[in-house]
Amino acid sequence: MSQSEDDVSKKIATTENIDTDTDNSISLLSITDGENDRGIPNVKFIDDVDVFSNSFTPPASAELLIGAYSELHSKFKTFETSLTQKRQNYDLKIPDIEKSLALVKNLQSKKEGGESVTTRYNLADNVYGKAEVDTSIGIVNLWLGANVMLEYTYDEAADFLTQNLESARKEFISVKDDLGFVRDQIVTSEVSMTRIFNWDVRRKRAEGTVDTPSS
Question: Cα separation of 61 and 203, whole Å?
Fold first, then answer.
């Protein structure tokens, strides 16, 4: 998980109280139920809104409950955006690593066969030059990012890229799992807010404080 996403996750997981427009607040633990392996809270589904409201002292109002779920929903939406961006980055990063690894393995194969490699390299936009690579030297340079390039032997480069590929694939799986989990929590939050709103309307109608629309 990247630093920015880890910060978002911690912000969701460690928020002690969610303030609303009232003088009261609801603890995050009151509307969550555990967390996944990476510390992302699991939103509590309200089976019986009346029982849940009365579990607080004094009983929590619909406005307070909806405000708490709305705040948590907003945090999850932020996290969803972050995870979506990271998944898109891996969609580009993994094929690049695979391509680089295949190229290094091809150079290894050519070296073992005592062959050179003829290739084309980019000089400018739509302008390429032709070059012959002496594979007997067994050296390749890899871009590491941030304008950093390091020299590796073919074996070192293959090992380095293989480790990076395995790590990227594991991270990609984690990101997809977390994204699916977060989207489930968003849906649960939205359903809970709807149930609370409908419960409040029914309660007020029963008390005669809400006019039923005439047909």
Answer: 11
* Tally of CA atoms within 13 A in the half-sphere of 24 that contains its CB: 14
Distance of CA 114 to the CA centre of its chain: 46
| Selection from 198, 204, 177 nearest residue 46 by Cα | 198
* CA-angle at 124, arms to 123 and 127, nearest 5°: 75
HSE at residue 48, side-chain half, CA atoms within 13 A, is 5
Q: What is the DSSP string of 139-165?
A: EEEEEEETTEEEEEEHHHHHHHHHHHH
Average pLDDT of span 40-61? 92
Q: How far apart are CA 67 and CA 20, in angstroms?
A: 6
Instruction: Give 131's strand partners.
Output: 119
Per-residue burial over 95-117, b if 16 or more Cβ lie within 10 Å, else e, is: eebeebbeebeebbebbeeeeee
CA atoms within 13 A on the CB side of 132: 4
The highest-level CATH class for domain 3-207 is mainly alpha
Q: What is the pTM of this model?
A: 0.76
Give pLDDT tens digits for 97-139: 999 999 999 999 999 999 988 888 888 888 989 988 889 999 9
Contact 196, 65 (CB under 8 A): yes
How far is residue 140's CA from residue 107's CA, in Å, rounded to a whole number?
9
Identify the pLDDT of residue 118. 87
